[in-house]
Design goal:
Elements lengths: L1 H13 L3 H13 L6 H7 L5 H14 L4 H7 L5 H14 L5 H10 L3 H11 L9 H21 L3 H18 L4 H17 L3 H19 L14 H17 L10 H10 L7
Helix pairs in contact: 1-2, 2-4, 3-4, 4-6, 5-6, 6-8, 7-8, 7-9, 8-10, 9-10, 9-11, 10-11, 10-12, 11-12, 13-14
Amino acid sequence: MTDSLSSLIQAVDAADSSKGLLEAVQNLADAHLEGSIPTLIAALSYNNPGAAVAAVDGLIQLGEAAVPPLLEQLDRHNYTARAWAIRALAGIGDPRGLITLLGVATADFALSVRRAAARGLGMMKWHWFPDNLLEIAQAEVLEALLFVAQQDDEWIVRYSAVSGLQSLADEIALTYPEWRSQIESQFEQMAINDSNEAVRARVWMAQQHLRAETLAQPPTVEAQPSPLSDTDWQMILEKLYDRKGQERVVFAEGDPRRYKELAGSIAQTPDSV
C-alpha cells in the first residue's frame, strides 16, 4: 500500500498537463488512503478547478482524518485553496468545522463558498454532539441559516440555506418543535416573497418533505461513537462562546454567559453520545 501511495503521489507531482494533473489527482482520491491527505490539500491551490473538485471529493470520502489539516489550510493566504477547503469541510460535516462554516455562510464575499457552507451547516454530524452542547450548536446554526435565507442577495445561496434548513428541521423535529415551526414559517414567507423562481420551487420541495416526515414514523437513528476528544469539544464550546460574545447585539436573545456554565462540564463529557 505504501508503494501504491508513493506512486500515486509521484504521478501528481510529475503531471505536466492540466488533463494529466486532473487524472493523477482523481486516481489519488479514488485510492481512499489517509496518507494522500497532504497531497490532496496541496491540489486545492493548483490552478486547476477539475483537480480541486476531485481533491475535495477525495477529502470528503476520507472524512474526519482530513479535518485538522483542512482547518490549518484556512489560516493561509491562498484564498482559492481556502475556498475549496471550506467546501471539503462542509461536505464532511465534522463539528470541528462548525464555527468556520457559521462565519463563512453569513459573511464570506464569494457566493460559491457561502453556498457550500450554508448547505454544510444542515449536514452536521449531530449524533456526535454531547447533549449539553447540541442545543447551543443547533441554535447557532438555525440563526445563521435563517439569516442567510432572509438576507443573502444571491439566489443560489438562499437556495442552499433552504436545503440546510430542511436538514436541520429533520434533526430537531422531536427535540425542538418550536424551532421547526420557525423554519416552517420561514418557508411560508419565502414561498410567497422570494424573488427567485428556483428558490420558491426548492422551498416547495422542502415543505412537501416536511409534511411527509410529519406523517411518517420517525426513523430509528443508531447511536455512533464520536471520534472527537474532550479537548476538541472544549475548543468547540469556547469558539461558540467567542462567537456569541461578538454577536450578542445581533442575536440579542442569546446571552453568552450561558455558555460559560457549560465549560466545566464538557471535560467530563464522554466521547460518544
